[in-house]
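Budget justification, computational time. The allocation requested in the original proposal was used primarily to generate structure tokens for proteins on the priority list. As evidence of use, we reproduce two of the resulting records. The first is shown immediately below.
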Amino acid sequence: MTATDAPDGSTEGPGGSPFGNYIGVERYPSQADRTVARLVVEPHHLNPTGAIHGGVLISLADNTATAMANHANVEANEGRFMVGIDLHAVMLANQQGGEVRAEARVVRQGRRVTVIRTAVTGEGGRVLAEVTTTHIPA
């Protein structure tokens, strides 16, 4: 990842989700309106057909959405971590190899419940999955 890849010209290295780090999620610093992450597809991310395993796409979306929920609620929750309590995913397409990107945005932020919508895109900006998650403070 280079500084020019990030929406704000910066990058964020390890230190996010341990599981996200384990599978290779590279997350950029959250902004007021979105959180963006990417994953370079490796052979262990593929299913038997050579396409990206659905669990990898969902994990990328979930990690990105949770980062957005935590960023959006950093002041309101006095440091309490936002956890996902519901996840709805629609798998629209897939690809073999390359890179995938997730962009998460707040749909609704209430006093306790935050809803995030995350689009996972592949090569050429093709939408691979649309994921909606609901988060509450732990």
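The second record produced under the same allocation is shown here.
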Amino acid sequence: MFFNHQTRAIPVGKWDAMHEDDKGLFVRGQLTPGLSLAEDLKAAMQHGTVEGMSVGFSVGPDDYTVGTSGLIFKNISYLREISVCTFPANELAGVTAMKASTASNLFAMRRPG
């Protein structure tokens, strides 16, 4: 898990679960306890200042079509990373829930369909 696709930085957390459902990609993750950026991100997410998610991926030349409102992806060849982000490419993709945990903060993110 990264913040704003900064893959050269220390990851801010890890993903515990990931699956595709009728609304899109669902992931659940934990922020890294004690990591200052993760603690700052946790505060921003709880405040609602940061609530987006974005995926970094690759597609093959035949894995997408051009629709009236943008690209339509049929298949993702390689999922590079998933980030919590300030300005997601898809404005519908975002954090849907956060809850406290004894070890760290858990949250779920979903891309609505």
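A brief technical remark on that second record: Residues 36-47 form the longest helix (12 residues).
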